[in-house]
Amino acid sequence: MINSRSERFIMHATEAIIGELQAGPNKLTEAFIPPRVRTKATMACDMSDSRIAAAYEAIQHAASSTDWFVLGYRDSRDKLELYASGAAPTSELVRELESTRAQEVHFGLLRLENKLILFTYLPDDISGVKRARALVHSRAIATTFRAHQAVMTVHDLSNFDQIARSKLRLDGSTTPSMPLNGSPRFTSEREPSPRLANGEGRASPHFVAPMPAQATTPIVSVSSASPASTSQLPALPRSNDSSQRTSLEQSPLSPALGYASAQSVASKTTSPQPSDSPGTGSAVPRTPQMSASPTGRDFSLPRRTSASPRQIYSSPVLNGFGNDQLDRTAMIRKSSLRRDGPGKQYPQQPRSPSQRKLNDSMPAAIGVVGLGLGNGLESISLEDQRAREAERAEAEGLARARWDAEATERQRLDEAEQLRLQQDEMLRRRASERLHREEARRLRQAELDRQMEEARVAQEREENLRADSNREREEREAEASRMAQARQEQKRLAKQSAIEQVVKRARELREPASTILSGYVTAQPRNATLWKRRWFELKPAALLLFKDDAPTSKALETIPLSASNFRRILLDPEDIAIVNSFRLDLYDDPEPYLFYCDESDDRELLVLALKSVCGH
């Protein structure tokens, strides 16, 4: 299992820590999984698919039609396969990522303006194990596809093209990416730390600096034996003062001691002065050359039997020694300024008790030497050696403490700068995500407004069409009603005219054989339950019923009609319950006559004709 701490380790681990993934996946797993949850895992990445190599070879050529390709696991844990490849634009790549498995990690290369960017698509809802495996495999893929200029990891495909162009600096952006190593306030080239007394060097944990070889300072001792005159002094080997001074000034162990030795050598280059001693009659030279060999530490100087105080003070040993001791504080400060630069100021170092004691005893020591006591001069040299060693140890301790303090301060500043950069990157990322969310919300709102506007326009169009349809229907109905009324009026007028003609003929015709009205009617014969369709002819004195309208037909029934015999005509009687029916009652016949017509107009015309014949 891989926890969140292991995932962070994988994200921030370097190639040196992770190592070769193909060689030892178990070693990588044991590097970041705690012992109590350590299990056997395989994090290797298999890219043996030959199509992957062909796609990678094609995308590196500008003349190729391959501008992107996508890799995925399909149904495997660690074997990658080529899903698809194609040419520009980027929208085709985004559609390919959306059309493939949405819950799967994808890798790929994209070429924009002859620049390659390696991308990893991690959906938000994948598990932590898949996310950790994808992070490890992305490093192996980046090691295999070395031709890319940028790397990006995306979780949302809405701004894929914009993020890729920003990573490749194709959108006019000039903001550098966050540094991977160290702080931009300090460079990797730093001055080395001073060596310790045992020869070991101290350095900052941020780098390994080369340490110069340890330089030694020659120590001059005075022998107890003294020759009789200055002419018996042995000739010392000459050396280059400038090279000696340069080597001493550049000593990394004790800058103050090196500077003091250089000043001592420089003081010995002054011109000699004649001696004031009347006994010798010759001048004592003040510029004997002394070797600064790092291997030799004991130089013998023959002691004279007698010398004046001026000769002793002007001797090469005491002249360099006195100047060195009197200006030691100034030399330490000057050496510190030369090493640390003009920007740093340090307080003046107080003189040590041995230095003050030595400076106070200078006249007495000179007097003793003037009297020819070699033991006193030897004790002064030993005391000078101890003072030099103490001063050197003190200077080295101060330098080490100052260097440790500066290293600690630099580390603190590096950590603060790294934290500030991480916070700035986090704020920038949050601002970018907020802008992306606002842009997505704005796009969704614009899409919603567009859909609402389209729905409103469609509704208005539908309402207008419905209103037009209703208006046309109403107009058609009104026209139909008007035409129906016109037809009814025509029928009414025609019926009225027919009735008037029938009545007129009934009144004018008095002959029994003349026919006033004829047609078909359905009648119920006497003592029968069935209805029969009959042809009728209305005469001035009777109603004749025939089987049909043939001229040769004989009347089946004759109903006499007169004013005295007519009783009434009842329309739609209850005992019949047939539409357009009527009943004829006569006084002479107790049984009524039942009839019905096909149309109401026919019934109305027949009833009016019967009433006219009967005088009603």
Automatic annotation (TrEMBL):
InterPro entries documented for this protein: ADF-H (IPR002108), ADF-H/Gelsolin-like_dom_sf (IPR029006), PH-like_dom_sf (IPR011993), PH_domain (IPR001849)
SUPFAM superfamilies assigned: Actin depolymerizing proteins, PH domain-like
Region (Disordered): 168-208, 220-361, 455-479
Low complexity composition-biased segments: 220-231, 347-356
Biased composition (Polar residues): 172-186, 239-253, 261-280, 303-317
Superkingdom of the source species: Eukaryota
Molecular function as annotated in GO: actin binding
Boundaries of every PH domain copy: 514-615
Gene3D superfamilies: Pleckstrin-homology domain (PH domain)/Phosphotyrosine-binding domain (PTB) (2.30.29.30), Severin (3.40.20.10)
UniProt protein name: PH domain-containing protein
Organism of this sequence: Mixia osmundae (strain CBS 9802 / IAM 14324 / JCM 22182 / KY 12970)
Gene: Mo02113
